[in-house]
């Protein structure tokens, strides 16, 4: 094959084939074009305003590293006049986050941005390692995702920052659109396709008798804006940008397994891209168009309208990075399958149970219901659409009665998860020391069941 | 045709990144000498290299995390001397002496 020539400068050898339009570009033209398109996304959606302090949700991974690098470049080139900070969440996973946090620390020096690291332990009293020790590997990504979502808001509040940007890219958004489509969850699809979301001002938390997840920052995460400047950027181009700019990023798989469903959606997206690269942006645009059809749909006002931002979704994001996107991939989903198989052997078919008919509040009665199911047959697994977790319309979003965080339920997901964790912590330690079998298993199952419910509602 | 062994192999550099190095002994850069021709006598191309890597370099048993349906798994980018392999004929590209072939995964945590 004769070398291709860059379509823009007509001089250099082309190294990049753009997935969105098959344009062949040389390295300098690609880097410039990529940056200019992010600039266009930022200006056409009025994402930033002069004087704004903006926290970048930084994981040390490719997306948030590219985001930090590009935002620094653009802020200088176009004089946005914004102040950029790095905010990292330490989930407390030994051997995983340690290395990526080292990367973030180097990034902070490279980009000359102040860095804040906030730990799950500090915020919730539990590290992810402790959570996994408690609940097992199944479903732990739900904890991670729910905790992280709130952690970024709480971290931002602590920094006195009103705006958090995350590294969600077009592939992530397309994946989320597909997942919500396959779940039949258009309201959530509507919320998650929006480029800007916001956590509305919160009322003070209820009386001191309740126990907020964080003693230090539960009251003040007011009106924190979230945005995704890389929403229209292909993951492929993000990786190529990082490669050609020699950016220092860290890639690893979360040690704990992400959801298999998300992994499958991701694989589907990547397969589609191989056949028809434009498919990813097409899915994103379809998601936006469908969102407009949802009553109170979020992007009805089209590009550039900032008068009405969308209420953020508390469950947004899976596992794998501090920007809330999934580590995804079949690599992980295969491991997930293995873990599930092991779990299935261990607990009978507990992992297969869809808990649509079960309630949080009645853990004890669940146990008796679960008894026969656990030992039951595969055929008892309810199929079809998730029955009870259909999302309430956005208008009914209120605040968590425990911690004041935005929630469509009386008690937010984090508080529900924490309640389960805190309840079972002392009991299980007793159970382990005792030799009795039956009740202990039930205890574990009830904790897992609340995860099952949340799985249905996650993102 | 020649008897000289060094004429029958091509020295190349193969690199793995974006998490793929985990499948290749946690080593990013591999200096390899691959056969000049495949079993049928045709010049070695990327398709041959990929199967060669699976058979000779990859110790990890999870081959399908690298290869799917006999080609590089979707979501893994291939750069030939820094150029997107789609600009070079994809897996039909005939490997030249001294080539640098980079496999980079986009599938890992961001
Ligand atoms: Zn050019
Ligand atoms: Zn709460």
How would you describe this protein?
The complex is a heterodimer of chains A (459) and B (110). Chain A is 47% helix and 8% strand. Chain A is an alpha/beta fold and 459 residues long. Among the domains of chain A are: 1-44, no CATH class; 48-300, HUPs (Rossmann fold). A seven-stranded mixed sheet of chain A has the order 5-4-3-6-8-7-9, with helices on both faces. In chain A, β10 (398-399) and β11 (406-407) form a beta hairpin. In chain A, α2 (62-77) crosses α9. Mean pLDDT of chain A is 72; it is low at 201-221, 298-309, 314-395 and 427-459. With 110 residues, chain B is mainly β. Chain B has a single domain (4-105), classed as Ubiquitin-like (UB roll). Helices cover 10% and strands 30% of the residues of chain B. Chain B is built from one helix and seven strands; from the N terminus they run ββαβββββ. In chain B, the strands form two sheets. In chain B, strands 2-1-7-5-6 form a five-stranded mixed sheet, with no helix packed on it. In chain B, strands 3-4 form a two-stranded antiparallel sheet. The longest helix of chain B has 11 residues, at 46-56. The model of chain B has no long low-confidence stretch (mean pLDDT 90). Classes of the chains: A alpha/beta (459), B mainly beta (110). At the A-B interface, β1, α2, α9, α10 and α12 of A face β6 and β7 of B. Bound molecules: zinc ion (ZN) (2 copies). The site of one zinc ion (ZN) has 8 residues of chain A, from α1. One zinc ion (ZN) binds at residues 6, 8-9, 12, 25-26, 28-29 of chain A.
């Amino acid at each position: 094959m004769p070398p291709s020539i860059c379509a823009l400068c007509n001089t250099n050898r082309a190294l990049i084939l753009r997935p969105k339009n098959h344009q062949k570009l040389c390295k300098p033209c690609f880097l410039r074009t990529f940056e200019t398109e992010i600039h266009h996304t930022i200006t056409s959606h009025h994402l930033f305003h002069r004087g704004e302090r903006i926290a970048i949700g930084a994981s040390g991974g490719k997306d948030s590293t590219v985001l930090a690098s590009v935002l620094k470049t653009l802020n200088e080139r176009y004089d946005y006049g914004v102040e950029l900070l790095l905010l990292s969440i330490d989930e407390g996973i030994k051997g995983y986050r340690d290395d990526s946090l080292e990367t973030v620390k180097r990034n902070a020096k490279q980009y000359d941005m102040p860095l804040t690291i906030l730990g799950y332990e500090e915020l919730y009293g539990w590290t992810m390692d402790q959570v996994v020790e408690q609940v097992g590997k199944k479903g732990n990504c739900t904890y991670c995702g729910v905790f992280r979502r709130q952690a970024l808001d709480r971290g931002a509040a602590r920094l006195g920052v009103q705006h958090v940007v995350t590294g969600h890219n077009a592939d992530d958004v397309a994946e989320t659109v597909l997942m919500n489509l396959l779940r039949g969850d258009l309201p959530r699809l509507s919320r998650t396709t929006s480029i800007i979301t916001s956590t509305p001002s919160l009322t003070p938390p209820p009386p001191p008798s309740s126990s907020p997840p964080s003693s230090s920052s539960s009251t003040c995460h007011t009106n924190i804006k979230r945005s995704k400047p890389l929403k229209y950027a292909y993951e492929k181009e993000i990786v190529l940008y990082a490669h050609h700019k020699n950016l220092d990023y860290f890639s690893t798989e979360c040690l704990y397994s992400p959801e298999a469903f998300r992994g499958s959606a991701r694989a589907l997206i990547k397969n589609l891209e191989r056949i028809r690269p434009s498919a990813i942006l097409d899915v994103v645009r379809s998601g936006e168009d469908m969102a407009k059809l949802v009553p109170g749909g979020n992007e009805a006002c089209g590009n550039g309208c900032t008068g009405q931002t969308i209420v953020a979704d508390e469950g947004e994001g899976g596992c794998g990075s501090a920007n809330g996107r999934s580590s995804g991939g079949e690599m992980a989903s295969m491991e997930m399958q293995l873990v599930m198989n092991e779990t299935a052997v261990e607990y009978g078919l507990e992992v297969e149970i869809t808990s649509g008919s079960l309630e949080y509040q009645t853990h004890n009665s669940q146990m008796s219901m679960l008894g026969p199911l656990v030992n039951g047959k595969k055929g008892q697994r309810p199929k079809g659409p998730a029955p009870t977790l259909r999302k309430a319309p956005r208008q009914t979003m209120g605040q968590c009665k425990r911690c004041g965080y935005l929630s469509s339920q009386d008690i937010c997901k984090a508080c529900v998860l924490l309640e389960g964790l805190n309840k079972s912590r002392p009991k299980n330690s007793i159970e382990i020391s005792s030799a009795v079998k039956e009740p202990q298993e039930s205890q574990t199952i009830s904790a897992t069941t609340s995860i099952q419910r949340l799985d249905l509602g996650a993102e | 045709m020649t008897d000289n062994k060094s004429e029958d192999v091509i020295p190349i550099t193969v690199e793995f990144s974006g998490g793929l190095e985990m499948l290749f002994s946690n080593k990013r850069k591999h200096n390899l000498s691959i056969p000049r021709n495949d079993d049928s006598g045709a010049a070695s191309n990327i398709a041959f290299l990929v199967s060669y890597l699976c058979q000779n370099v990859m110790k990890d048993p999870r081959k399908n995390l690298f290869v799917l349906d006999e080609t590089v798994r979707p979501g893994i980018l291939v750069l030939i001397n820094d150029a997107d392999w789609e600009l070079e004929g994809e897996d039909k590209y005939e490997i030249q002496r001294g080539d640098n072939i980079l496999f980079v995964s986009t599938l890992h945590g961001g």
